[in-house]
Write a structure and sequence with these properties.
This protein has about 300 residues and is an alpha+beta fold. The chain contains 7 helices and 5 strands. α4 packs antiparallel against α5, α5 runs parallel beside α6 and α6 runs antiparallel to α7.
Length: about 300
């Protein structure tokens, strides 16, 4: 059995399916069977419409890479394969990053398949619960300076929260998760820098009162209380972070939906897109972590 995770801007979320290796099934055949919208036309390796990027979760695993002459030629025409990559595939069984889905057969390995999809269709936002569609965030923001002020506060609070969690994990000796939370804090500070760059000359400190309170007394990207559990695993920490990013996505989505100011709506829409990217990154990390757990070497008794 092999797990194939499909990811694309035209999909609301990544989808992982199970495929039986060795049954002559191609990536395209698996995609069609599970209604994954990989574009295709000829299905014979000649048009290049089913171009995909294939990432192997276990980079050390090697299996025979069967590149047909048609696939090599089309990939060369698309500028997606080099002479060195062809030689590496044929001599060392190192798969190239780009393949044609109709020509790439499923193997006994887990992979991530990324594709652009039909560019005439709008990109899908991340899947959220039905409750999120009516979530109002407890506030209506109708001034651009106020919006950037709250956006900055979201990222400041997220960075501080992850720093606190990292310190807590380090204190109880959970160094692996402490390192992850520290990395997430750094990401939040990068997002904060992006907010400040977009705000330009706006003084962000003036637009959120010092005694402000978020709905439910928690910043949108604050993680669940159990994130402070000393026994939390790396996978658990990633899932906590994903919850926070989804709430951040919902917060900006609510601002876009409720504001009466077109400029605020446009700015919130950009943040919605960015949070969607953050959600997809964390979903990919979770998929990789789950793969690593399933294939971990058994511990000696």
């Amino acid at each position: 059995m092999a797990n194939i995770t499909f990811s694309s801007p035209v999909m609301a979320r990544d989808v992982t399916v199970y495929a039986v290796a060795g049954d002559r099934g191609t990536i395209l055949a698996v995609a069609k069977a599970h209604k994954i919208p990989i574009p295709f036309d000829c299905q014979d390796g000649e048009c290049g419409s089913c171009l995909v990027k294939v990432e192997h979760f276990n980079p050390l695993a090697k299996s025979a890479v069967a590149l047909t002459e048609k696939e090599k030629e089309v990939l060369k025409q698309l500028g997606k394969i080099t002479k060195e990559e062809i030689e590496n595939a044929e001599v060392n069984d190192v798969p190239p990053p780009y393949r044609l889905a109709c020509q790439c057969f499923v193997r006994h390995e887990d992979i991530l398949v990324s594709f652009e999809g039909d560019k005439t269709l709008p990109a899908q936002r991340p899947h959220v619960t039905s409750v999120a569609r009516t979530y109002k965030g407890g506030m209506e923001i109708n001034a651009l300076d106020e919006f950037f002020g709250y956006a900055a506060k979201v990222e400041e609070d997220a960075a501080q929260h992850y720093d606190d969690l990292a310190a807590s994990m380090a204190k109880v000796g959970n160094a692996e998760v402490a390192k992850l939370f520290k990395q997430l804090a750094d990401f939040s500070r990068l997002h904060l820098a992006e907010v400040k760059a977009r705000a330009g000359s706006i003084d962000l400190s003036k637009h959120v009162p010092p005694d402000y309170a978020w709905p439910n007394h928690a910043s949108p990207e604050a993680s669940a209380d159990w994130a402070g559990d000393s026994a939390i695993t790396r996978l658990g920490a990633l899932k906590v972070a994903l919850q926070g990013e989804r709430r951040g996505y919902e917060f900006y989505g609510a601002v876009e939906a409720t504001t009466k100011n077109p400029e605020v709506a446009a700015a919130a829409r950009e943040f919605v897109k960015e949070e969607a990217d953050h959600v997809k990154i964390l979903e990919a990390w979770i998929t990789q972590e789950e793969w690593a757990i399933r294939h971990a070497a058994p511990q000696p008794a």
